[in-house]
Specification:
alpha+beta, 261 residues, Pantoate--beta-alanine Ligase, Chain: A,domain 2, single chain, 2 domains, two-stranded parallel sheet
């Protein structure tokens, strides 16, 4: 994440809010674990207790990421921006990452033609795309980002892994696409970008990607909104991957955005 005049209190507001969130999560987790032990027995209770503990660990992961953003000497921020980074908190292993929302398609503000191309690439048929655009128009009219994301998720169910969809779409982005952080799937959805250029940008370094911003009117640079993502396993084949949307102020402070990713 590009820093903007970082200071020792760069994420003060984020710290305060996350302390409250983490404290409530821990208290809620302990209470839930106690209730489970009182009302459930055997494997079911053990599985539910692991899930609660995983959610508490995920909240701790969010706090750890905000702390890294506020500390110029902490290398976790840059590592998490490059991709999933493993850390250990207590007995839990977490994979943390920071996603730049500028590299995602905004379901509210993005160009409809871009979403249409993305859906077709995912395997949604013509009828499905048409129905999606109609439902999306209604969600946009109400500025309901959660509803817009749900429309996209339903349309791609069984066609695109939810992890990939979450990394490509957002309700906290903007009308343009930042080529530095966009995935190959998103780049191929840009209407006036040739497949060859999309492939070349996807394989390029961040500096080279930034230099290609002139290739499309849909490409734009910067953006101060990001998603903090923590992944923690709570079962042999189950994992939680909650996401927390944030915005960086020009002073380098972290602000939590209303709602989930």
């Amino acid at each position: 994440m590009v820093r903007r005049t970082p200071t020792s209190d760069a994420s003060e507001s984020g710290f305060v809010q996350l302390i409250v969130v983490s404290a409530l999560a821990v208290l809620g987790g302990l209470l839930t674990a106690g209730l489970l032990s009182a009302t459930q027995t055997g494997r079911q209770a053990a599985a539910l207790e692991r899930l609660v503990r995983a959610e508490v660990a995920a909240d701790a992961g969010f706090y750890r990421l905000v702390a890294a953003i506020g500390d110029p000497g902490d290398t976790l921020e840059s590592a998490a921006l490059r991709g999933p980074t493993k850390i250990t908190i207590g007995d839990d292993e977490l994979w943390l990452r920071i996603e730049a929302n500028g590299g995602k398609i905004d379901v509210l503000a993005g160009e409809p033609a871009m979403l249409e191309r993305y859906m077709r690439q995912a395997g949604v048929d013509a009828y499905g795309v048409s129905a999606l655009l109609d439902d999306l128009s209604a969600a946009r009219k109400n500025q309901d980002g959660a509803a817009a994301l749900e429309v996209v998720r339903i349309a791609t169910a069984g066609l695109l892994p939810s992890e990939e969809l979450n990394r490509d779409t957002t309700r906290f982005g903007g009308p343009g696409i930042d080529p530095i952080h966009a995935s190959s799937r998103v780049l191929h959805a840009v209407p006036d970008l040739s497949p060859a250029d999309a492939d070349r940008i996807a394989a390029a370094s961040p500096d080279e990607r930034a230099a290609d911003i002139h290739l499309s009117r849909y490409l734009s640079s910067g953006g101060r909104r990001f998603s903090l993502v923590t992944q923690v396993a709570w079962g042999q084949d189950e994992a939680s991957e909650p996401c927390l949307p944030i915005e960086m102020s020009t002073a380098g402070k972290v602000a939590l955005l209303a709602g989930s990713c």
